[in-house]
Specification:
α7 links the parallel β17 and β18. Helices cover about 25% and strands about 30% of the residues. The chain has 11 helices and 22 strands. The chain has 3 domains: about 60 residues, OB fold (Dihydrolipoamide Acetyltransferase, E2P), CATH 2.40.50; about 200 residues, Rossmann fold (3-Layer(aba) Sandwich), CATH 3.40.50; about 150 residues, Beta Barrel (OB fold (Dihydrolipoamide Acetyltransferase, E2P)). It is an alpha/beta fold. Bound molecules: S-adenosylmethionine. S-adenosylmethionine binds next to α6.
Length: about 475
């Protein structure tokens, strides 16, 4: 098999299963063919888009039979927008494959002995479950094939999501099923207002244009934060947009903006200006209140975050005497959530603003046994730190998708905490890290949790016990 296979059509292949990253798998003469946008059970003709010696990639160009596990996608943007790629697969099967993904990553990447993986905890809400969406303004709206072929002229300004693998093309979103209706109303009205007023939408290639990005955050308490990023420092234009949002949507609790003249949309290093209301919104969990600022991470599915944290707390099995380290603590949510059942909790996190929120969150909840530190984990968690703090009885770690830095894993091996609870949104890097930790730890429990229905993403919690 080689590059010569490119563009060849492989007829009548059965889609067998779903592999990592959500792509489906068929076999051609014993070789794996990865295919997106199909379902296990489909019978298809596949055009090869990439041929390699050990695998191929392709696209389905004709369907002869449809899988019995297919369901009708509910969103009009399905297939274009990169968001909810599994809408065509029924939720029960989505959960099965997510759990299988965990098993596959641990056996293939981790190559470690695992106990029976617990049944996945599904999400009650399979739509409107996100508390944060990030929309991009663009003067280069993605056009459908029909629009291009019609030779009509269309509005090219758009406010929506990036098309996968096309950084400057934005699909104009009319309705998104990920966040409640206030979010759809705010986005659509702001777009209409901007078009009426002739405000410029960002030109991603030439880096000009006033309107750049819109972030809408909501919370379990019903509060709403809106952040508008501007690509030009035009006080009149900015005032117009912000006043429009303030008067049209008086229920926005935190109305913020940023003038971001950098090449990218990240704003951790930019000043956030409060136009109206507070500079944070609040989440609520078991009577605890959490302040979430514009730069702070908070799990994007609030209701499932509660399920996830309950698993983490149960796996930590605390009795009140333990010192707990909560690594990658974000706004200290897990730290504060378990504090009542621990002697002391130490939280560490990279983003200073999140640590400031974490401290406030302890304060407003009357929690006095937490300590928080800001900095890169591999730099903070060093010998000096350990000399100045009690050793942990339990480590809870919840790193980003990339997993833990090798130095952090090595430090955990030296620390020898009796228990590690490893929470992860990427079982591949989790399995890699746990393979290293298995030098001293054995896997005791594995609990997948579905935080993101309609996507292939899966959250996973593992309890590791120090080998005696
Ligand atoms: C998956 S989030 C977990 C947050 C928190 N446990 C929660 O549930 O809300 C990962 C966190 O790790 C932080 N982070 C990423 N890289 C880091 C690093 N090198 N050192 C410390 N924290 C880091 C991110 O800012 C983010 O808040």
């Amino acid at each position: 098999m080689s590059r010569k296979m490119k563009n060849k059509v492989l007829p009548n292949l059965r889609i067998e299963r779903i592999a990592a990253e959500g792509k489906c798998v068929a076999y051609y003469e014993g070789k794996v063919v990865f295919v997106p946008n199909v379902a296990p059970g489909d019978l298809v003709d596949i055009r090869v888009t990439k041929g390699r010696s050990s695998f191929m990639e392709g696209e389905a160009i004709a369907f002869h039979e449809f899988s019995k596990d297919r369901v009708k996608p509910f969103c009009s943007h399905f297939g274009t927008c990169g968001g909810c790629k599994w809408q065509h697969i029924n939720y029960e099967l989505q959960k099965t494959y997510k759990r299988q993904q965990v098993i596959d990553q641990f056996t293939r990447i981790g190559k470690v002995d695992i106990p029976e993986v617990l049944p996945i905890i599904g999400s009650e809400k399979t739509q409107y479950y996100r508390n944060k969406l990030d929309f991009t303004f663009s003067n280069n709206r993605w056009l459908t094939k029909e629009e291009i072929n019609s030779e009509e002229t269309f509005e090219r300004n758009a406010l929506g999501f990036h098309i996968p693998k096309m950084f400057d093309k934005i699909v104009d979103i009319d309705h998104c099923y990920l966040q409640g209706n206030a979010s759809n109303d705010i986005r659509n009205s702001l777009r209409t207002f901007a078009l009426q007023e002739g405000l410029t939408f960002f030109d991603l290639r030439n880096q000009v244009g006033l309107l750049r990005n819109l972030i809408i955050r909501s919370s379990s308490t019903g509060e709403i934060m809106v952040i508008v990023q501007f690509g030009e420092n035009d006080p009149n234009g900015i005032q117009k947009v912000m006043e429009y949002l303030k008067s049209e949507f008086p229920f926005i609790d935190s109305l913020l903006y940023i003038v971001n003249l950098k090449k990218n949309e990240t704003f951790h290093d930019q000043e956030v200006i409060t136009h109206h209301g507070r500079d944070f919104i609040e989440e609520e969990m078991e009577g605890l209140r959490f302040q979430v600022g514009p730069k702070s991470f908070y799990q994007t599915n609030s209701e499932q975050a509660y399920e996830l944290y309950k698993v983490a707390r149960e796996f930590a099995s605390l009795n009140g005497d333990e010192v707990v380290y909560d690594l990658y603590t974000g706004t200290g949510t897990i730290a504060n959530f378990v504090a009542k059942r621990a002697k002391q909790v130490v939280g560490i996190e990279y983003v200073e603003a999140a640590i400031a929120d974490a401290k406030i969150n302890s304060q407003i909840n009357g929690i006095e046994n937490t300590l928080f530190y800001a900095g890169d984990m591999k730099d903070i968690l060093n010998d000096e730190f350990l000399n100045n703090h009690p050793k942990p009885d339990v480590v809870i770690t919840d790193p980003p998708r990339a997993g833990m830095h090798e130095d952090v894993v090595k430090m955990l091996l030296r620390l020898e905490a009796p228990k590690i609870v490893y929470v992860s949104c990427n079982p591949a890097t989790q399995a890699r890290d746990i393979a290293l930790l298995s030098e001293k730890y054995q896997i005791d429990k594995i609990q997948p949790v579905d935080m993101f229905p309609q996507t292939y993403h899966v959250e996973n919690v593992v309890r590791l016990i120090l080998k005696s």
